[in-house]
Amino acid sequence: MLKYQTILSDIYEGLTEITKGRFDINEQSKLIEQLDLDSLQIMGLILDIEDHFDISIPVNVLKDVKTVKDLVVQIEKLSRDEG
Amino acid sequence: MFNKFKTMAANRHELDMLGINPFNIQVEKIISPTEGVINGQHTILAGTNNYLGLTFDPECIAAASIALENEGTGTTGSRMANGSYSGHRKLETEIAEFYGKRDSIVFSTGYLANLGMLSTLAGPDDMVLLDGDCHASIYDGCKLGGAKTMRFRHNDIDNLAKRMERLGDRAAKTLIVVEGLYSMLGDVALLKEIVEVKREYGGYLLVDEAHSLGILGEKGCGLSEELDVMDDIDFIVGTFSKSLGGAGGFCVSNHEELDLIRYSSRPYVFTASPSPATIATTRQALKKLSAGTHLRKRLHENAARLHAGLKELGYTLGAPPSPVIAVVLDSKLEALHFWNDLLELGIYVNLMMPPATPNGAFLVRCSVSSAHTTEQIDMICAAFSKLRVIA
Fold first, then answer.
1. Cα–Cα distance for residue pair B327/B317, rounded to 1 Å
2. Do the Cβ atoms of B377 and B306 come closer than 8 Å?
3. CB of A83 less than 8 A from some CB of B
4. ipTM surpassing 0.95, yes or no?
5. Which of B102, B123, B199, B365 would disulfide-bridge B254, Cβ 3.0–4.6 Å?
6. Active site residues of B
């Protein structure tokens, strides 16, 4: 099972790369409203996360994901379920 | 409640300010499968998915007229409530025979075919793995059914295999969904390789042949026929509204449970069934398709001519030659003006923008018809040529 802090650190790294360092990212950062991610970027991010953490992320769970923290919590939960 | 439309309102305002609205075109008069009047100007239609040009076919029109006369204008409800007319079941038998499959279900539109099949096949306990470039109707069907839906990178076989492997025992119960010919760029699925993945990991495979019916394969069944993998496909979905020039959708399958889907599919149960005229014209168009290859041959000749012409002009094209030819442009503004300039030159094509497009691309998308004359194809090329000079 993946640890919250490990996931958070990796997500920060991924988001910084996608947003080209334009934003100060924290757990409360909103993916769409504040980090300016569009649906295609989010799709790419999810595919990368699946491969990076070796988990499957159903599209359905994304409806509950608004912030970086929401995303990390979902990944933690999915890794726990799959583990 | 209306706050969520603010972004849409801003986008529309931007188009209004430019005086360009590609999403609200009025065809003032439709003259033929390839010609109409738009903004008072005679226009060549090269963005209507009328691949075989059958919308004005005299035999299809005659069949529709007879049905209209004999059976009335509509069915006034669903087949479940109001019963099936003779043509509904006949069309289902004929489309199943055309594909060499056990049975079929006819839906009222192509959108409803995907919505009805996916929402019913894959429920909350099931997994769906779909190509990232799949059509909105496929996403919506998965959403309606509540299946655990995951995506793989478009046409990336290793990416698909990796995801199937990751699913472990669940892979054998997973529904893989792809399209035959992808409607935005005109590229085709790597269906042989996808079938191999299914053979290795198990699962089921649904192929949406909406844009490949009538276009690919010796009989015109689509990509699954062209690549000789029809037996490996569990469900083929398609539409009557493109090559067959009518309206409606279908699913064919050898699974005997297909008939049970009819009773469980909300988009089937709660929708008015296709009108008698719609069924009659579709049956006639299917006969035309089954009868010969001349329309398909002409279509591919036209597609090759347009593709070659645009390529020679130096445009970046989305895929190798197919009846869908997408010109990739650099920005939204460039795409809007380009589309509008083409219209002013008497050529109607589609403007496609994110999020509907792969990789956030801005596309001017042509769809070729077998009804286009060589002169019309050359006129389309000439218009693109003029804009190339300006650019």
1. 5
2. yes
3. no
4. no
5. B102
6. 183, 211, 242
Q: Where are the domains of chain B?
A: 2-56+293-390, 72-291
DSSP H or E segment with residue A9:
helix A4-18
Interface of A with B in 43-82 (CB under 8 A): 43, 46-47, 50-51, 54-60
* Nearest in space to B143 (alpha carbons), one of B118, B164, B173: B118
Alpha-carbon distances, residue B171 vs A58, B42, B141, B175, B388 (angstroms): 14, 54, 20, 8, 49
Pull the structure tokens for residue B314. 């130096």
User: Residue B105 forms beta bridges with which residues?
Assistant: B251
Of A39, A54, A56, the CB nearest to B355: A39
- The model's confidence at residue B314, banded by pLDDT at 50, 70 and 90, is very high
pLDDT tens-place string over residues B81-90: 999 999 999 9
From 3.40.50.300, 1.10.3720.10, 1.10.1200.10, 1.10.238.10, which CATH number describes the A4-82 domain?
Answer: 1.10.1200.10
> By three-state DSSP, how is residue B100 classified?
coil
Interface A–B counts its CB contacts (< 8 A) at: 40
SS3 category, B377 = helix
Q: Are A42 and A15 in contact (CB under 8 A)?
A: no
Residue of B nearest to A63 (CA): B143
Measured distance CA(B209)–CA(B251) in Å, rounded: 10
CA distance B156 to B151: 11
Mutation for B interface: A55, A60, A61, most B CBs within 10 A: A60
Contact yes or no for A56 and B143 at CB 8 A: no
User: Residue B270 corresponds to which tokens in the numbers above?
Assistant: 């709660």
Whether A1 has a pLDDT exceeding 80, the answer reads: no
| H-helix or E-strand spanning residue B116 | helix B110-121
Task: Tell me whether residues B163 and A50 touch, CB distance under 8 A.
Answer: yes
Inter-chain touch B354–A40, beta carbons under 8 Å? yes
- Contact at CB, A59 and B150, closer than 8 angstroms: yes
Cα(B83)–Cα(B224) distance, rounded to whole angstroms? 33
Could you give the CA distance from residue B207 to residue B229 in angstroms, rounded to a whole number? 11
Q: For residue B107, what is the enclosing H or E element?
A: strand B103-107
Option in A39, A54, A56 nearest B150 (CB): A56
Give pTM, 2 decimals.
0.94
In whole angstroms, give the CA distance from residue B157 to residue B151.
12
